Give the backbone structure.
Amino acid sequence: MKACVLGAPAEVSTRPLQLREFPPPELRVDEVRIRVSACGVCRTDLHVVEGELPTRRSPVIPGHQVVGRVTELGAGVTELAVGQRVGVAWLHRTCGTCRFCRAGRENLCESADFTGWTVDGGYATEIKAPAAFTYPLPGDLSDLAAAPLLCAGIIGYRSLKLTGIEAWSGARLGLYGFGAAGHIAIQIARKRGAEVYVCTRDRERHQALASELGAVWVGGTVEQPPALLDAAIIFAPAGEIVPAALAALDAGGTLVLGGIHMSPVPQFPYPLIYRERAIRSVANNTRADGHEFLAEAAACGLRTRVQSFKLAEANQALIALKHDAIRGAAVLLVDD
């Protein structure tokens, strides 16, 4: 197999990923082997590559939005078939026994593994994954179009869930940052009947795409929307946005922080959070989130916008992502 490997964290401008050859990974009894056809490029990959997330495996193959086809089954696998198209997401495996797993909150598992961080990921021609954490994919999306659903989509879906909005028709939702997750979340929210207000700094790509996807208003990152919001989600990893987003919330509104890493949040005055405004972070996802999201995405006709790169261009894709040069989502097209 071939894979783009990170030997040690470094600035993406130094192109730290190296394309190398490896023997195929050995399967455990509960795992499947997957021939990778596409892998989304996520900002979390950038955090892994540049060391903003602590090193958990070294060297490591990044990538956790993996689409491919099953080529081999572990001895104990019965729920999948050879040749089946599947996806592999960020949550790779949980213990199943800790207090969080027992309470149905496996996203908070105390000893979870994560694809492309603690175990090797999908910037490769092959990957192995536990069958129980592998998702059958809807057939009406191409491999390239389906890849961003496996993290940008699932995390966007969980972020929408944590807003606390129950009556979506006419609800006012703010999105801060409009990359891969934002351009998927807006489609779900609008299909549910919400009005979506988008705050993002890039006019040429991100603001234009937000307007194209039906935002009722689009402005700069810290510009105040023309109406108070029932809830907002920050997808950008920028803590300095938090005070501006709180100022845009109506009383009782919730601000959801949708990333695994964020720069420091500055001090802000208490009135910004008074009147029962709340801040919540999103930590990973459950498998239920993934299955629920994929079903809703298929039902609402969700379509991703992607820019494709070859596997050997993984460094280039990460550089483009870091500099907000992607309209929608970046995806590696993997071939032999």
Observations:
- The longest strand covers residues 31-41.
- The chain has a mean pLDDT of 96.
